[in-house]
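Journal club side-thread
Mid-discussion, someone asked how the predicted structure for our own chain would compare to the paper's figures. Pasting it here so we can look after the session.
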Amino acid sequence: MSIRELTNFEQGPLKVGAAATANVKGTETAIMIMKEGGNAVDAAIAAGHVMGVVEPLDCGLAAGGFMTIHCSSRNKTEVIDFLGTAPRSAKYQLYAVNDINGDFTIRVEGQHNQIGYRSIATPGTLRGFEEAHKRYGFLPMQELIAPAIEIAGKGFPISYKGALRMSRTANVLKTTHACQTLYLKPDNSAPYEGEIIKNVDYAATLKEITKYGADAFYNGDIGQAIIKDIVKNNGFLTNDDLRNYEAVWRNPCHFNFRGLDVLTSPAPSSGPLVFSGLASLNSKHKNEDSHQVLAEAMLKMFSNRRQNFGDPAFILKANASESAETTSLCTIDSAGNAACLTYSNNNHSGVVIPETGILMNNSMALFSPWPDNPNAILAGKRPISSMMPTLLLKDGRVITAIGASGSTRIPTSLMQVLYRLKVERKSLYESITEPKLHAEAETIISDEDLQYIAEPLANKLRLKYVKSPGRDTSMGVVQAINIDIDNVVTAIGDPRAKARGMVC
């Protein structure tokens, strides 16, 4: 089978641009925007809005995340941080209990930090997209939102990943009537892959944003509708939280890996922690087992994260409930500009705001509800996140754009892909599609076809072993674009999600 016969990726010369997203409609939109004269940032924003329609549980107008951007004409790389923030009044009631196994556990009353109105953090998507567009965009924002409006209004077939997500969170989708009627069938079962969903209210909301910009959400009628419903249902988010939200420009974290400049999102992203893992891989000796080196690097990385990591804007610098589902995409244009976007609703709250079509995040679950720890809840604070959209440069030129979804599997997925691609010199397709393992805390998890290696390794390291069935999306879905030494470009959407990459 030739590389072009594989539907999830393409390879060829870069005449206009390349894109990789977890859904064919997102990838096609990014390529269309670059063909119409837009740059990589325009394409990423347009594809991001489309992904908010076709992967509505994972991302959208109520989400938050990061975009790592390289501007070739300025020879500059920056990160826009638009993570959701804690509402000023957010506070949870904790209680102690002995669980079914007799273990002592502290829980949040009513799971309010994970489901429903009290799990909603201040959304950052529109401020983040707005800031990226103001600084680097070329086409008018209305043109970038138009494809998402059309798809939401006409309807779209549910993707493999989308159907899987709806099935796995069907109970949460019943949290509110508006959510239930939008995403579940009359018998409350989840729709199947290929079935059509329309979100006419979301299309109307996007049209309002094309007229009035992000202020329609943060200061206008859309925001008022959101706050009215949240206040009515005893949520934490207020008008002041929306009005005061700001996306933040940050300098990327930098690391040299085998002669390449790795640039990724800084804290509160986990991006910097991957560097310690990459350092371990960089110094690996030939006779060492790569899987053990990877596992030990992962364990060290998460140990550092628990002890020291948090929002740099706060003195407190971490245990939380991070969803395995996120949206990540990347774009590179013919001028050498690049954008890598990762953003998320976390697992979603089950709250759809009536007459807006917006499914709200449950990003308060990313915080630790216990006080006096690095990831504690404070008003306006950003939580620790595993999202880390990443660019690799050689001599000032982007040669790889890579990002992933998958909660804490994001940094470990990227660590493995980069090791295979840059150390073992495998193709990008092999690097993404080979089986993965994940080591965190006291556990090693692997794809089932790596069990023969991962289970003995877990025993050797005195860790618990868990097998992940098949090639599950929860083990990390990676999207990437790579330019080789002959200037041949490969764009791949991870086959785990039946994703898509395109080069034109």
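Post-session note: DSSP finds 16 helices and 23 strands in the chain.
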